Amino acid sequence: MKTALISTLYNESRNLARWWNCIMEQTVRPDEIVIVDGGSKDGTWEQLQSLAQSSPVPVRLHQQRCNIAEGRNIAIRMCAADIIASNDAGSFPRNDWFEQIAKPLRENEQLDVVGGRSVNLITNDFQRLVVAYQPPASEPKHPDQVFPSSRNIAFRRRAWEAVGGYPEWLTLTAEDSLFNYQLHTVGCRFYYNRDAVVAWPMRESAPEFFKMLRSYGYGAAEARLYWRDFAFSTLVTLLPPILWLSRNRGRAFRFRYQKYLNGTRGWFAGRFRGRRPPGGWRKVRGVFLSPEAQQFMRARSSGGKRVVP
Fold it and tell me: What is the second-level CATH architecture of the domain 3-199?
């Protein structure tokens, strides 16, 4: 069964060589690598072309101005594999990552999606501050709790086809969240492999971090996800003294308040100025589903196969 690694990137010249070395040092390599550059302006594209020339694995490159979801779908259409793993340049997979993320799909035909474990890469005091005041990471105990980031996921092509691919109508973020929710809703089977490890560098400064939170909030609002989280975030934004009731009380109060404030700003911007789903999309069980996902569910309910052939 053929395998592929897909990746999207944008302005990653600073980290590209390190990421490429991580991919080349994998204990098991994919049959092909497809990378989509979303229009980098910092020399990433030229550097990528040079690196690809020495690859022992066939590499296909494509450059096009696009959002993240479009880039992922372009890469998947360009590859011919049945098992597709996704890892974003700028994160750093452990040298056995590809082996571990693809292994459950190779061994169990009934599985559709595998998620791995992401760990924070911390190099400065600001990043340590972020980690100190974020909820401790909890690992999934049940397949229904597996919602992988697309920097650390593998899936069968048939699952991607069942939901019509990543949702390209979203402006930038939340594409992997909505992709996961659709896959769960149509009945795909998930598996969590904690041995598939990817290290992800946290944002290095407060402006970068708060910009990320605004972007995440914007995407979540467009996708109509996590509204309970943002309802609480809005409450804290309007009534900051609520933070004094937490176990951290007044410690790093300004930073903690700014986290809620920026997430809330992003969510309201996305809710009122963000994009709306295209025609044919509708909510099923609280999740926006593409026309392809709806058709798949109808076929399954009428006696069709659980997954597309």
Answer: Alpha-Beta Complex (3.90)
